[in-house]
Structures are given as structure tokens and as C-alpha cells.
Amino acid sequence: MTYYKVIATVHKVSPPSSQAPNQPAHVVMPCRMYNKGDRIVFEDNQINIAETTGALCLSLVASMIPVLKAMQRSVKPLLDEKKGVERHDSTQQVAWFSCPDAERPVIFKIERVPQNVPGWIVAEGLALKNPGKRIHLHTPNPTDKLRGDQENLWEKYMV
Question: Same domain, yes or no, for 21 and 95?
């Protein structure tokens, strides 16, 4: 099975517009959390903070989880039964996603990049080889050293 890193890149930050007829928008400015080109990198059920350039909106991340889970795993191509050939399914490579803000949505292009071996598989193997030992393996986080997390095995096993 192939596993993927998923990258969500801001494609468009929409201006406010009312969704109710004859009513003004409830907000007056576009989303201030994201700019075009910002990206959020999801890797091994984590957000790779070191590669992420945008903010983290909890509403966005929560609503995006089903798409992320599907795009992190390999999918068999759909077959065109009449022609007997694979049908192009763009969600296997790229998906478009809108944040749940109805009046000023941010549109994301979601792409997936093949990953050699997911970190959770490496961590499981290390844990089986070292029973009872604490395994510290996660995507690099700039605050690791501030928190005293000196033994992150990510660079040793994943890079």
C-alpha cells in the first residue's frame, strides 16, 4: 500500500458576501488567517509544522479530516465498465476544498505526494524492537527544543 503526504495550498481567499437574500454580510473583511499560497502539510496523522506556512484554523482542519484520510491512502482506479479502461478520478491526485465559512470561504487545492514509509509504521517497528522504551518520533516541530524534546527520532529514521 502506498501512503501519501497531503499538502493543502490556499488557492483563493474570497471576499465577504451575504448568503441571505437582501441581507448584508455578517463580516466585513476576508479571512485574515490565510493568504494565497499559504500551505498546511499533513504527514502521518500530524500537521508538519516545519513545512506549514499558513495558520491553523480548527474549523478548517476538523472539516478537512475525511478528505485527508482518503487522500493519505492509495485508491484503486475506477474502471469504465463500457470501455474496460481506467477512468480518470482527479481525487486520486488533487482535490479542491472550501473551508466551512459560508460568507468568506477560503478555497484550498489539496495534493498528495507519495511517502516512502509512514512514520507510524517505523514507530511501531521501533516499539516492537524496544519494548517498554519511550519512542519519540514525530514530524519536526520548531518548539521541540523549547519543550525539552531532544530525542525526536524523525531525522534519524525518516529523512
Answer: yes
